[in-house]
Amino acid sequence: MRVPSQAELQERKRVQIGIETTSNAQSTDFPGHWPGENHEWNLDYIKENLNVKFHTSTPFDSEFSLIGIDTSVANAFRRILLAEIPTLAIETVFIYQNTSVMQDEVLAHRLGLIPLQASRRGLNWMKWYQKPTEEDEGSGAPSDYNCAILRLNVKCEWQEGGLQRAARGETDPDKLYVNHSIYARDLQWQAIGKQAEMFADGPIQAVNPDILIMKLRPGQEIELLMHAMKGIGQDHAKFSPVATASYRLLPTIDIMKPIIGADAKKFARCFPKGVIRLDSVTSEEASELDCKENEVKAVVANPMRDTVSRECLRHAEFKDKVKLGRVRDHFIFRIESTGQWESEDLFLESVKLLKVKCQRMRRGLDAMMN
Amino acid sequence: MSTYTTAGAQQQQQQQSSMAHDASSSTDERARFVEYSCGDCDAPVSLKRGEPIRCRSCGHRVLYKKRTHRMVQFEAR
Ligand SMILES: [Zn+2]
């Protein structure tokens, strides 16, 4: 059996980027593509080659590299992150009074989009809410284990002496009215049944208390009740746990012929800061490169920061000296959480969900065969 | 209006009483009045049937009817 060299394998998984083209984008490491080579799926091979490297990790924003995995799997993780991890969000709004300038349906929509946070234990304990069906009488009743109640009761009024100040020309709402702005922090959660116990270490509240929901003026009043339920991004974007999860492939920059002096400085300017470093040429390199000692030379410092703008390819002097590309199996993931779960947990959750889906698939296949 | 039930029967009763809005108790005595606000001085005016349409504090004859306290259900979508 033919075993390809490391260099050949690396070349195979390099997406080539030309001035106006990309080529070699398709992966070829599957059985039957390369004559005499074995590319059968192999768990030991995956275990040995899979690599995860963290670049930044804050609770709600993390960036990491997932190396040695096929696009189909990496993309499955991304799509699960966006659309299939459940979160809690406001789903129904019962409006008793709304004399503000905002229409009821606009207000309800805004409330639905507010990201909520709560105790992990409580959120895991909560179950899906099933909508009532015609066949089953009494189904779809909201209960403590699938629905949280939040209230919002605000009335705007004149401050003491506000009217007189307004007559004198004062326009600052802070000096004229009370409750002139409703923020996400004004949502009041009301624990029902077992919720008080399950959410003991973290009440249901807005992640960002300073979200401005609406503004009021004296005499205007809001009185409403909300039901928050668990749902997934597939149903509505408000349930998506991420404020986007995306990946990009690791860019590569190969300098084929040395770029020296003024050219090197121009070359560095073709890339974002930090991608290209300027080193001074040493005495032994100088004779080899046919240039003076201590002249600057362009060196690739950090290709990860490149945006692959291809700017360098527009200049005739660099065209044949540089090769741009991307590594097909190096995914730089960026997961930004909306605040209900931590970014790291979200990725693990997506892995768990994919596993569950695979098991379901296998059960289905087993049932089909028997 | 949706009713809210919990697993425990005791809690259920508690729930339903808390969910039933206070509308029923306060409407009885106020049912005959309708709330308006004055188009000129913005003062609240409550009128009974047959009363002249006129603001009590400034005498203005244009009154705006207020939104009633009826619940409307919306999907937050
Ligand atoms: Zn008046």
From TrEMBL, chain A:
Gene Ontology cellular component list: nuclear DNA-directed RNA polymerase complex; RNA polymerase I complex; RNA polymerase III complex
Main location: nucleus
Gene Ontology MF annotations: DNA binding; DNA-directed RNA polymerase activity; protein dimerization activity
Location in or out of the cell: Nucleus
PROSITE patterns: RNA_POL_D_30KD
UniProt-listed GO biological process terms: DNA-templated transcription
Domain (DNA-directed RNA polymerase RpoA/D/Rpb3-type): residue spans on this chain: 61-364
Alphabetic keyword roster: DNA-directed RNA polymerase, Nucleus, Transcription
Protein family membership: Belongs to the archaeal Rpo3/eukaryotic RPB3 RNA polymerase subunit family.
Annotated HAMAP family: RNApol_arch_Rpo3
UniProt protein name: DNA-directed RNA polymerases I and III subunit RPAC1
Source species: Sporormia fimetaria CBS 119925
Phylogenetic lineage: Eukaryota, Fungi, Dikarya, Ascomycota, Pezizomycotina
UniProtKB/TrEMBL annotation, chain B:
Name of a matching Pfam family: Zn_ribbon_RPAB4
Gene3D superfamilies in UniProt: RNA polymerase ii, chain L
DNA damage in keyword set: no
Keywords from the named record: Metal-binding, Nucleus, Zinc
UniProt xrefs under InterPro entries: RNAP_P/RPABC4, RPABC4, RPABC4/Spt4
Coarse class of the protein's main subcellular location: nucleus
Region (Disordered): 1-28
Compartment list: Nucleus
Biased composition (Low complexity): 1-26
Entry's Gene Ontology molecular function annotations: DNA binding; DNA-directed RNA polymerase activity; zinc ion binding
Any one GO CC term of the record: RNA polymerase II, core complex
Gene Ontology process terms (BP): DNA-templated transcription
PANTHER family: DNA-DIRECTED RNA POLYMERASES I, II, AND III, GEO11084P1
Family under the similarity heading: Belongs to the archaeal Rpo12/eukaryotic RPC10 RNA polymerase subunit family.
Name listed for the protein in its UniProt record: Metallothionein-I gene transcription activator
Organism per entry: Sporormia fimetaria CBS 119925
Record lineage: Eukaryota, Fungi, Dikarya, Ascomycota, Pezizomycotina
